[in-house]
Write a structure and sequence with these properties.
Layout: E1 5-11, E2 17-22, E3 33-36, E4 49-56, E5 63-68, E6 76-78, H1 84-93, E7 101-105, E8 113-124, E9 129-134, E10 141-142, E11 144-147, H2 154-166, E12 171-186, E13 191-204, E14 221-225, H3 227-233, H4 237-247, E15 257-258, H5 269-283
Parallel strand pairs: 3-5, 7-12, 8-13
Antiparallel strand pairs: 1-2, 1-4, 3-6, 4-5, 7-15, 8-9, 8-11, 9-10, 9-14, 12-13
């Protein structure tokens, strides 16, 4: 199915309308800026950079900043987390990024329980090692993971889980990476889960630690290991993928399920494209 369409973006506080070819309409909810090749359509003298003008994204009525770059050949929309070129421009101009595609890991099963979770990777710079928990025959080596409680922020959950499972509580946040949609079986709970997981990378700031606060079914060893051990022994797809994410300067997600996209949440890119094309045909 063709996944591109000319979309009309009304310029805020103006009668101007920008008609721009959106090449991947399924990511329309993720548009965070518009980049024009010239200012000929606008009431502005700005010839390069931010115009101080905004356009209205028709599908969600959100305002997005309008930029000008005379080096590009055609006007475009920017979806930074899902396009490498858009990402570079957003970083350079400090433009907000919005994730609208989640990579999917693991295999779906019947009767899955849904929840939001975290994976926390803690790095000891002095010894060049990473904090892991070893479940041995009940799941092997993993990073610290856990379920986000109702009303709890993902970052707070990550800090809490690290302290509860290992005792370490002096950490510095280095990076938060895009969310992953994951399916897995929990050995210690004998249940299948489908989770939306946020990954974090922390730097260990002190070797001092508190007493662990573990549930009865949490029987594992806390171990610091090097990169080679991680690559060799962490087999869980979610934890392996989170490690890949935090090791990269940028994470560009090109396939998966739609999120933060209202009418197409949970759909594949192909399914979402069909729905949004129909919506644009009727409303734009």
């Amino acid at each position: 199915m063709k996944n591109s369409r000319v979309v009309k973006f009304k310029v805020d506080n103006s009668d101007k309308v920008l008609e721009i070819l959106v090449k991947e309409v399924d990511t329309l909810y993720g548009v965070s800026y518009i980049l024009l090749s010239s200012n000929k359509y606008l009431d502005t003298k700005v010839k390069s950079g931010f115009t101080k003008l905004y356009a209205i994204n028709p599908i969600n009525n959100c305002k997005v900043p309008i930029y000008i770059d005379s080096t590009i050949k055609e006007d475009k929309v920017g979806v930074p987390l899902h396009n490498e070129e858009d990402y570079e421009y957003a970083i350079k101009h400090k433009i907000e990024m919005k994730q609208v595609i989640e990579e999917v890991t693991g295999k779906p099963h019947d009767n899955e329980f849904k929840k939001n979770s975290i994976v926390a990777i803690v790095y000891d710079e002095d010894n060049d090692k990473y904090l892991t928990i070893n479940w041995h025959e009940k799941g092997g080596r993993l990073f610290i993971g856990g379920t986000i409680k109702e009303g709890e922020k993902a970052l707070d959950c990550a800090l809490r889980e690290v302290e509860e499972e290992t005792g370490y509580n002096k950490l510095k946040l280095l990076k938060e990476v895009p969310k992953i949609n994951h399916h897995y079986y929990a050995f210690n709970k004998d249940k299948y889960f489908n989770i939306e997981c946020t990954g974090f990378l922390f730097k260990l700031m002190s070797n001092k630690k508190n007493k662990q606060n573990l549930d009865e079914d949490e029987v594992f060893s806390v171990e610091w290991v090097d990169k080679d051990t991680i690559l060799k022994e962490i087999k869980d797809e979610l934890h392996h993928k989170t490690y890949e994410y935090v090791m990269k300067d940028k994470v560009i997600i090109t396939d998966g399920l739609l999120v933060n996209s209202e009418i197409v949440n949970g759909l594949s890119r192909k399914e979402a494209t069909k729905v949004i094309l129909e919506w644009l045909k009727e409303h734009n």
